[in-house]
Amino acid sequence: MEKDLFSFKNSDDIKNAFQAYNVDIPVSDNLDIFKRQVPVGSKTAPNAIALQPMEGCDGSADGTPSDLTVRRYERFAEGGAGLIWMEAVATVPEGRANPRQLWIHDNNKESFEKLLCTIRERAMKAFHHSPLVIMQLTHSGRFCRPYNKPEPVLACRVPVLDEKYKLDDSVKIITDNELERLEEDFVKAAVMAEKAGYDGVDIKSCHRYLISGLLAAHTRPGKYGGDFEGRTRFLLNVIDKVKAATSKDFIVTCRLNAYDGIPWPYGFGVSKEDYRIPDFTEPSRLIGILEEKKVPVINITMGTPYYNPHVNRPYDSGGYTPPEHPVKGVERLIRGIGYLKSQTRNMAFVSTGYTWLRHAAPYVGAGVLEQGLADFIGFGRQAFAYPDMAKDILFEGEMDRKKCCITCSKCTELMRADSVTGCVIKDSAVYLPIYKRDVK
User: Fold this and answer.
1) Of 7, 64, 196, 353, which is most buried by a Cβ count within 10 Å?
2) Residue-wise over 332-362: b if at least 16 C-beta within 10 A, else e?
């Protein structure tokens, strides 16, 4: 089926393919729409293409960007995207998802400033523009692995995840007092990011890392769980405190899971009757509060790579056979994000779910922008494989199918093997030897 879908010659062929799959996905050949500038608060992105946060797992032991990290962001900067949503940067060492995850602190904040300067210099030289750069701040929660062994910190018990990862009752559940202190750690990291020159920070609230887990903590007692107010308290407190500690032009936002796909009462944005069906009531309510707090942009995702990765990144091959065709997952992401945007007034939205589409992605992204379903078209795995795709979309009017990510999940295999991560197929000179060493 995928071969038929990707053998198209024009946008009409794509429309016909989607019709055959019975999906409602917009298509347009107006690729000039990507060239429009996008206002984000008081700042402006030079175009409507975004790179999603993709972890390279290649920082140094103290969280400082390595040569591989710098290489990745040099390639991103030279690729032409208007918004670079930087990968997860830990706020505390024990909150890292792996021993090489980036971590900003007093002793290395200058290295993050230097990285940003490199990004801006490379982009200015190549395109005479500077992308918006947002640093994603994180605590990995149940997926913490800071020192070569799992050290999970739970928001609450989640039977399907606890069983999958063999977590018993001895595993730590973070206390209210610890969460109060962690709020201040997020603020400290955000202040360092602003001083380093970043345009904003993302308080990471997706993929069942700590804050995402809190949003679904229906069964947690105390002030950070239970009802909607309790479950959103940590995120909203951090956003308020960061905004109070930074300048009015500094962007404070989040990448938000709008649908977990985990059975209720352990999932967020899920139907109580059937967890396979999204219920956007609470996510929409939360986004409305964020808009009232002058959050100018939001990045929406769904699912979790640790439980149902086909939801957040539709793929051709991976750890299991998905229960749906990948194009159905693309439709869920695009239409779900479009619905959430329709419930707001002036907030900019970053859409996701385009990598599986390969060279059809620009035509779908153009259709999404034309219909007002999003303001930025975001690419994740595609950025590993094809870092200069924005340049080709903007100036060549197409993506080169030979450069496209083939959603083979080898980058994920590298991550699961506790290795550094990149595209084994399209960046083979660097990552194929690493894959052979650490995976095969």
Assistant:
1) 353
2) bbbbbbbebbeeeeebbbbbbbbbbbbbbbb
Spans of all domains in the chain: 26-403, 408-440
Rounded distance between C-alpha atoms, residue 175 and residue 308, angstroms: 28
- How far apart, in whole angstroms, are the C-alpha atoms of residue 274 and residue 362? 33
CB distance 96 to 105 below 8 Å = no
Crossing angle of helices 361-370 and 326-342, in 10° steps, is 20
pLDDT band of 148, cuts 50, 70, 90:
confident
Return the percentage of the chain with pLDDT > 70, whole number.
99
Cα within 13 Å of Cα(82), Cβ side: 22
Cα–Cα dist 430/428, whole Å: 5
- pLDDT attached to residue 130: 96
Q: In terms of DSSP bridges, do strands 102-103 and 83-90 run parallel, antiparallel, or are they unpaired?
A: parallel
Q: Which of 412, 385, 387 is nearest to 313 (CA)?
A: 412
- CA pair distance 416, 15, nearest whole angstrom: 36
Q: How far apart are CA 333 and CA 300, in angstroms?
A: 9
Matching CATH number, 26-403, of 3.20.20.70, 3.30.2290.10, 3.40.50.1950, 3.90.1640.10: 3.20.20.70
